Amino acid sequence: MTKDGTQTKGKLQSVLEDSIVVGEDHKAKILKRDDIATIYKTEKSKLKSTLIGAGIGTGAGVVLGAAVGGCHDIGCVSRGKAIAVAAPLFAIPGALTGLLIGHHREKKTLVYAGK
User: Fold this and answer.
1) 2, part of any domain
2) Does residue 53 contact residue 98 with C-beta atoms inside 8 Å?
């Protein structure tokens, strides 16, 4: 963000002694160091959120599979088999939920703060 309040988004192309170049080749913008208030690096981590969601779903499947397994009025199902079925069934919706959350979440890291 510049000191006058305008915001520029884009990929950092180059850093010079008194300025930076931001944007794509055909739409590059040169920003002078004296005009810059802050620079943030942003990243979206879809993979991390997806893996966390899959892990939570798998854990829920393991717990449910262990609770359902055993002998009941309708018959016997080993806990191992119940866990083997429930864990992936819960991992898939957990991963999808994590992907959706990660898609809308953005991590901002302050890289530069002007004087």
Assistant:
1) no
2) yes
Residue 73 and residue 97 share a domain? yes
CA 48 to chain centre: 5
Below-50 pLDDT ranges, the chain: none
DSSP string across 26-63? GG-EEEEGGGB-EEEEEE--HHHHHHHHHHHHHHHHHH
Contacts of 87 (CB under 8 A, 6+ apart): 58, 61, 62, 65
Tell me, what's the pLDDT at 86? 92
Ramachandran category for residue 13: left, alpha or beta (phi over 0 → left; psi -120 to 50 → alpha) = alpha
In a domain, 53, yes or no: yes
> Over the stretch 29-59, which tens digit does the pLDDT of each residue have?
888 888 888 888 887 778 888 999 999 999 9
pLDDT value, residue 88: 93
